[in-house]
Amino acid sequence: MSELLTLELIRAARERIRDKVTRTPVLTSDVLDGHSGASLFFKAENLQKIGAFKARGATNAVFSMSDAEAARGVVTHSSGNHAAALARAAKLRGIPAYIVMPNNAPKTKQASVARLGGQITFCEPTTAAREAAAEKLIAETGAQLVHPFNDYRVMAGQGTATLELLEDVPDLDVVMCPVGGGGLLSGTAVAAKGVKPGIRVIAVEPAGADDAARSFAAGKITPSSGPVNTIADGLRTVVGTRTFPEIQQHVDDIVTVSEGAIVQAMRALWESLKVIVEPSAAVPYAAFVERKVSLAGKRVGIIITGGNLDLDSLPWANTEVL
Amino acid sequence: MSELLTLELIRAARERIRDKVTRTPVLTSDVLDGHSGASLFFKAENLQKIGAFKARGATNAVFSMSDAEAARGVVTHSSGNHAAALARAAKLRGIPAYIVMPNNAPKTKQASVARLGGQITFCEPTTAAREAAAEKLIAETGAQLVHPFNDYRVMAGQGTATLELLEDVPDLDVVMCPVGGGGLLSGTAVAAKGVKPGIRVIAVEPAGADDAARSFAAGKITPSSGPVNTIADGLRTVVGTRTFPEIQQHVDDIVTVSEGAIVQAMRALWESLKVIVEPSAAVPYAAFVERKVSLAGKRVGIIITGGNLDLDSLPWANTEVL
Questions:
Q1: Which CATH architecture fits A55-145?
Q2: A39-44/A26-27 β-pairing
Q3: Cβ–Cβ of B271/A311 closer than 8 Å?
Q4: A25 vs B31: CB contact, 8 Å cut-off?
Q5: pTM of the complete model
Q6: Chain A within 8 Å of B7 (Cβ-Cβ)?
Q7: What's the pLDDT tens digit per position in B86-98?
Q8: ipTM for the whole complex
């Protein structure tokens, strides 16, 4: 299978989106360094436009299109941060964004998309209904589907976070990020290995949605070991046909973490970094909480992927002790 | 009364503490700009060491001392962020920090001071008991009191946040910060007017602790209009004999805000900036929420002072609608 994501694509994405996304800061914490035994450098993509790294990939996709293509608009059937990111990018380019959302999507995500001018079509919360609704919109409008991860423009855009991280902290030994569909992970891995071939790339996944870890071990795309069940709502998807080959080639390891470790990690990040971290974004640090990685003394970059969640229902609100 | 805080002192403080504190990022939000009608630039001192701007003043004070003075240690009877900041600065210099705390101090603040090596002495939660306990420690150890705000070294240190802010965003029309004892406000005002004489400096204070607004109007230090009662626990103190003259000379206005506006502002900042903001730090933005300032079209710098609070008791947890 030919490799189609390259460092050059990621560098081109960076120039394309440079003035359209935030160059997010890198945060550190003596407390978290103490707990982990490593030196941790958190790339704060929760402080990115729309509160997540997804702004990068969607913006790169929308601004890669020709004027004629773009004029008909873009479509997605993702309900999460990618939807907000695509709506924002389309608004920046002055084109329509059609967003298919399940009728049970969190109200904060609905509001975010609507505020950014996305035209929402609600559907039943099944994959079939979402795909059917998107197909119908495409047939009616001629708009182009921008997949949340299985798209090289999106994958390249997501990799730009790692380019910035390695500019700010060049001497990293390891880069870590969560894996859901694999758009961020493939971009991260290609960027990191391209800039610094000796670096290690470790992905972390909820044990309750362990398709990437199982796929990585099996050498082919493989479903999760059980029904998908995790608080990390951004990571419930299965790796894609375009992302998985990149992951196979460039990632060193994929480890899994428990739900308890994710919540504990999330709280630790809130308390020590003083930033709002959504559950999916706490997954890499959960690998330290649960001792799933041995990186004592290493300099480790971690992508904090997003900070969008409902502040009325924090996972520790009804829990005496985590 | 002679003016004793100068731009030169603040610049010297900046060099003294440059490699000992974080150069915090400036955050922006299209949503908050839309709501306020202004262009807002938030200096994120909640991402500062110990989670608050207080790291600046305490570090400047500790590193301004001679070796002989420093060797005997430092004392404070503040229980808040200044205590953690002083403990951290003392640890950096390798000297003892004696921290007097009321026995009802929040557990997160106790833990923070203890983790930083501060030697805690508990006392009854009265001003008299705290001062007596501090006096006793000074008599026993020869340590030096570092007041949380009424100290030129501390005031100069706090002003360094504004020097950085004006480097990052030189063309500000206004700088805003909260006022409690006035250490931050006096440093902010002297720095801002020193660097950019035409800039306006507006302080914001809870209506439930309005001594600074009343003092400013009366031309002399004046107590609050009623019993001090505000969620903004960092702002319950009265302006000091050294801070107030600087405020009189360099500040353009002091406005007050309600408790409801503070909580609403706090939540808006969490949701839009994706950072954790303690109640005191939300007070300046509350002036926009409550329409206490008219700054449409202006470029406004706002110091987000800190992010330390108990995540188990958020002010909106038991409120259906704010």
A1: 3-Layer(aba) Sandwich (3.40)
A2: antiparallel
A3: yes
A4: no
A5: 0.93
A6: no
A7: 999 999 999 999 9
A8: 0.91
